[in-house]
């Protein structure tokens, strides 16, 4: 008989800017709540913390920071909330994240930093049980409302980011990294997301894994 207590599932939704992440996360959260499933949503960067406010200023091009510095701030922002995520999971709550460490690595690597260096600050963070990557082309992203309002919303950079995401995805199994075509109607994307997430919400009897520990 297993001694591991049932815990909540850790679900991360990733993608390029304007890929529909925020819409899909909100839709998923509402659906889980409707089903009576305890759920908590985190959005990274969390711009409400002291570190998050520094990141927000940078993303709005209101301040300038070295690429290494901003990368470490993004990582620190995740570590600020790591203990809260673990506590919620242990209590049986499903945790949703709108972006996570993979975005930090993808964007910083796309700007020219080393992939290995970019991963190192996030080693040992709680690892998602599944990451859903909402896949669109930079051209599709550009056609959506609000594109270009923040520092990273430039087509050339987004194309590089997409390439790094694809590289990162190769490190995971098909069960733990799922690519979803996000260029379709949002209702169709939402149904695909639900089919993957719902089976995980009954509780998991496996230990929470740690991000990238095996590659450190």
From TrEMBL:
Is ATP-binding given among the entry's keywords? yes
Q: Top EC class per UniProt? A: transferase
Write out the pathway annotation from the protein's UniProt entry. Answer: Pyrimidine metabolism; dTTP biosynthesis
Q: Which InterPro entries match?
A: P-loop_NTPase, Thymidylate_kin-like_dom, Thymidylate_kin_CS, Thymidylate_kinase
GO terms, molecular function: ATP binding; dTMP kinase activity; nucleoside diphosphate kinase activity
Ranges for domain Thymidylate kinase-like come to 13-192
Claim: Kinase is one of the keywords in the record: yes
Q: What is its EC number?
A: 2.7.4.9
Gene Ontology CC: cytosol; nucleus
GO biological-process terms attached to the record: dTDP biosynthetic process; dTTP biosynthetic process; dUDP biosynthetic process
Its keywords, alphabetically, are: ATP-binding, Kinase, Nucleotide biosynthesis, Nucleotide-binding, Transferase
* Stored HAMAP family: Thymidylate_kinase
Family that this chain belongs to:
Belongs to the thymidylate kinase family.
**Annotated protein name in UniProt:** Thymidylate kinase
Protein source organism: Mycena albidolilacea
């Amino acid at each position: 008989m297993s001694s591991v207590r049932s815990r909540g599932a850790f679900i991360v939704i990733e993608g390029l800017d304007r890929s529909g992440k925020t819409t899909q996360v909100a839709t998923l959260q509402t659906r889980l709540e409707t089903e009576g499933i305890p759920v908590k949503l985190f959005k990274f960067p969390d711009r409400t913390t002291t570190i998050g406010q520094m990141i927000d200023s940078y993303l709005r091009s209101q301040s300038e920071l070295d690429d290494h510095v901003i990368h470490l701030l993004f990582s620190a922002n995740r570590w600020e909330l790591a203990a809260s995520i673990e506590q919620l999971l242990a209590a049986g709550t499903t945790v949703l994240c709108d972006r996570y460490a993979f975005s930090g690595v993808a964007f910083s690597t796309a700007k020219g930093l080393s992939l290995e260096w970019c991963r190192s600050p996030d080693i040992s963070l709680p690892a998602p049980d599944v990451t859903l990557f909402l896949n669109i082309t930079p051209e599709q992203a550009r056609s959506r409302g609000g594109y270009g309002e923040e520092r990273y919303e430039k087509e050339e950079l987004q194309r590089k980011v997409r390439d790094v995401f694809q590289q990162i995805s190769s490190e995971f199994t098909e069960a733990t990294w799922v690519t979803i075509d996000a260029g379709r109607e949002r209702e169709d994307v939402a149904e695909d997301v639900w089919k993957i997430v719902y089976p995980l919400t009954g509780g998991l009897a496996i230990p929470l894994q740690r991000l990238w520990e095996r590659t450190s």
